[in-house]
Amino acid sequence: MKHNQLELWIISLKVMMLLYAVVSYFMSGAVVSPWMTLFILIYVSLNISFHLIGRYLKLVMIACSIAVLVVFHYALYPLLVVLIPVNLYELAAQLFRNHWLRAAIVFIPLVVLPNEWLLDYGLFAALGFVFLTMLNIYESKVQYLSDETDRMRNDIHQLTVRLAQNEEFMRQAEHAYKLEERNRLSQEVHDQIGHSMTGALIQMEAAKRLMDNDPAKTAELLQNAIHISKEGIERIRLVLKNMKPLTEQLGLRRMKRLTEQFSATQPIRIFLTHEGNLDRIAPIHWKIFEENMMESLTNTMKYAQASVVTVHIQVLNTMIKCMVSDNGNGERQVIKGMGIIGMEERASTIGGTVIVDGSGGFSVTTLIPYKKCEESHGEG
User: Fold this and answer.
1) What fold is seen in the domain 247-379?
2) CB 78 within 8 A of CB 25
3) What pTM did the predictor assign?
4) Domain-by-domain residue ranges, the chain?
5) Which of 177, 189, 289, 334 has the most other CB atoms within 10 Å of its CB?
């Protein structure tokens, strides 16, 4: 609740109390009096105007409103005393934060009022105090939540800026790494291959000059050139082999990146574990594991209300297994939707199967026969 909304509620309370007093005045048989009209105009003017001015002038205007009520209470109509508690509360709210001090000020007139007005004043004072106190407490809570929201928005903005800075740093680091790798590769090619090719070329140039005069020496030089060239080609093959990452590193690294990206955008912790010789897993099977894993994570986010997900890849003697399990609600009777059917179809293309279990959380296990994996490697 904003401050101006709080003021509207206070004005509404005053209007209702004023209507009560005015209606009671006319129901008592009193004639229409210019003094009552004057009182209403003065009271309304004062109580609206002090919502538009500063704090110190507001104190003066509230005090004037209370004085007007006291004067017209004695001179015109005693029941106007029921309008005093709201003004007293507003005056106390400007001076004190403690609700008990405000209550003491609101109920002070009970000491000096005659007995016939004690009940009316006490009832309106109690109702007004409870109503206005609840409004102030509610406003304080809303203000606190608003401040917390602003603080969190500021924190999110700072985190976003830091994330952007980190991403830029990572891009620069990646670019620098690529430049360093290119420089290293260039140097390695120069050191390992350039010398061999230069040596072979020198041998062939010498053989060319001796071709007519010394056939035996020419044959020897050519054989040396062939030997040096073979060594150079072997070094090229080794350099390229060392540059190429292993298959399991590509598949596992990609799955780690996918799980990290998912955890970064969703309130779920994901643990990726593995055991066995991952080199037996072909690229096509890594692809199936990745797609089934992402489908399982999406379903977990939508339905499971889980906080932890475990992805376990295990290479067995005859099977390769990828199990995605969570600690969510689970499902006693699993109804296969498009997601599960899609996972089953992907696994079936290579002779695999998908097992779904909804007891004790939810788990999706993709099983691929190892024989099929060997055939895929052979075909590749």
Assistant:
1) Heat Shock Protein 90 (3.30.565)
2) no
3) 0.39
4) 1-244, 247-379
5) 289
